[in-house]
């Protein structure tokens, strides 16, 4: 998707210039063109299989910020399911007993869980902070502000999930001309939020919460270790990475995978971002793009390019080209 390509190009520019400060405008543009182009093509291609399986052949793939993360989580969840002594049911197949049945309804479950999650954060920030920064209006009740903010999240998520299937149908139909005539077998690459309309809606909420748990634990570890770089949990990586990974994990490995894969993702997002942002100097200029691929895959690229130079760049390009050859 276009907005993602722009922001990724900005981050890649910094990383490549850190590794090759001698490059001029033309050569750095050439390096970025080839490296980013291969990353986008190979990454989105990796997601075709897991996405087709998740969506029952809807004819699309993920082209976003966690393409390698989705693929790794899907494969790891599949392995976990295959090697576990006890089968882990998918979330949509689990019937909760007694009063817990209210959590079978996604809108109720999301509203309750998000009230608990955001309620703690907003309570820590405090009413004075929210008023000072104009999140709240003077005279607005603090308790009802928390309730409204949390419930709105659940409503917006439900709207998103309900509208996704309509969007997918229109998109895949409009793409037929390209996939049938111009580039046979091709599929559109879309934002990861499209997957939230498939599988269990509660996998989205649970993936978000387990990713948040992983991130908060990693942040606490950075503080205890007195890290020179501290990562603040951003909502976009928390939701669009970990909720997405939760959906794919549930499809391949059930509830157990949903509890494990987003949690690991949260750890990787914080530790990976802290390491790369501190090393390349981006921490001093406001932060870093903390999505899965940019906290795991691109730091690996950066290490290879920094220490192996243009030979390292060539190795990365060859490996990216080999991935689809091995995949098929």
> Separation of termini?
25 Å
What's the shape? globular
Amount of beta strand: under 5%
Number of helices: 11
Task: Summarize it.
Helices cover 72% and strands 1% of the residues. It contains eleven helices and two strands.
Describe this structure as you would to a colleague.
The protein is mostly helical and 328 residues long. It contains 11 helices and 2 strands. The protein has a two-stranded parallel sheet with strand order 1-2. Helix 1 packs across helix 11, helix 5 (106-125) runs parallel beside helix 9 (201-224) and helix 9 (201-224) runs parallel beside helix 10. The longest helix has 46 residues, at 235-280. The chain is globular and about 60 Å long. The mean pLDDT is 87.
Give a topology summary:
Blueprint: H1 2-19, H2 25-46, H3 48-54, E1 61-62, H4 67-83, H5 106-125, H6 127-132, H7 142-174, H8 176-182, E2 189-190, H9 201-224, H10 235-280, H11 292-327
Parallel strand pairs: 1-2
Provide tags for this entry:
11 helices; mainly alpha; 1% strand; 328 residues; two-stranded parallel ribbon
């Amino acid at each position: 998707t276009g907005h993602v390509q722009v922001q990724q190009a900005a981050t890649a520019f910094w990383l490549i210039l850190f590794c090759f400060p001698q490059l001029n405008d033309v050569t750095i543009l050439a390096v970025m063109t080839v490296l980013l182009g291969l990353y986008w093509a190979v990454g989105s291609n990796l997601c075709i299989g897991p996405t087709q399986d998740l969506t029952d052949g809807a004819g699309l793939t993920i082209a976003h910020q966690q393409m390698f993360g989705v693929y790794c989580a899907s494969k790891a969840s599949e392995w976990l399911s295959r090697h576990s002594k006890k089968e882990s049911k998918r979330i949509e197949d689990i019937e909760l007993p007694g009063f817990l049945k209210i959590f079978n309804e996604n809108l109720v479950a999301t509203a309750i869980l998000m009230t608990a999650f955001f309620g703690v954060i907003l309570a820590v920030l405090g009413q004075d902070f929210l008023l000072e920064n104009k999140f709240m209006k003077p005279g607005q009740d603090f308790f009802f502000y928390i309730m409204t903010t949390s419930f709105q999240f659940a409503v917006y998520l439900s709207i998103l999930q309900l509208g996704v299937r309509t969007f997918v149908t229109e998109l895949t139909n409009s793409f037929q001309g390209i996939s049938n005539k111009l580039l046979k077998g091709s599929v559109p690459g879309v934002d990861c939020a499209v997957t939230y309309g498939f599988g269990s809606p509660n996998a989205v909420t649970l993936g978000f919460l387990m990713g948040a748990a992983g991130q908060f634990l990693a942040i606490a570890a950075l503080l205890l270790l007195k890290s020179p770089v501290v990562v603040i949990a951003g909502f976009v990586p928390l939701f669009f990475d970990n909720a997405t990974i939760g959906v794919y994990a549930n499809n391949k490995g059930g509830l157990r995978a949903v509890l494990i894969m987003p949690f690991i993702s949260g750890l990787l997002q914080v530790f990976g971002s802290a390491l790369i942002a501190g090393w390349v100097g981006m921490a001093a200029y406001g932060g870093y793009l903390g999505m899965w691929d940019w906290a795991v895959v691109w730091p690996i690229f950066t290490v290879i390019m920094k220490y192996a130079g243009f030979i390292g760049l060539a190795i990365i390009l060859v490996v990216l080209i080999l991935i689809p050859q091995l995949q098929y």
